[in-house]
Structures are given as structure tokens and as C-alpha cells.
Amino acid sequence: MDPFVRLNLLGSSAAIHAMRRQIEKIASVDVPVAVLGKTGTGKEMAVGAIHYLGERKQRW
User: Fold this and answer.
1) pLDDT at 49
2) What is the pLDDT of residues 11-53, one digit of tens each?
3) How far apart are CA 40 and CA 52, in angstroms?
């Protein structure tokens, strides 16, 4: 199953595909990340996806 479906990050637009690629790229490195944006833009969902897809989830 697609991990993004499991995380409810759904969609097929170019913007969604770009966001997914960025999340995968960020999740693959072990560095602190700050996610910025306006209220209601899904920052918390993006952070959850980064954590879920990354190696750091095993440490907590």
C-alpha cells in the first residue's frame, strides 16, 4: 500500500506529487526540519509523514 494513502495525503495534482517527492527526500536524511506555512495548509500532516517515512521514528 502506498504510504501516502495510509497517511491520508491524497491527490493526483502536480502540486501533490511535488509535495510527496519533497517529503520523501526530507524523510531520507537525518536533519532537523522546520515546516512553515499558513494556518490550515497541512503542515502537521506533512510533519507526520516525514516522521513516519523517516528512520528517526525508530528512535522515539
Assistant:
1) 93
2) 999 999 999 999 999 999 988 999 999 999 999 999 999 999 9
3) 21
User: What string of DSSP letters covers 1-50?
Assistant: --HHHHTT----SHHHHHHHHHHHHHHTS-S-------TTS-HHHHHHHH
Cα–Cα distance between 20 and 37 in angstroms, integer?
Answer: 16
The pLDDT of residue 3: 84
Cell 506533512, residue located: 46
How many CA atoms, within 13 angstroms, populate the side-chain half-sphere of residue 60? 6
Vertex 60: Cα angle to 44 and 11 (nearest 5): 30
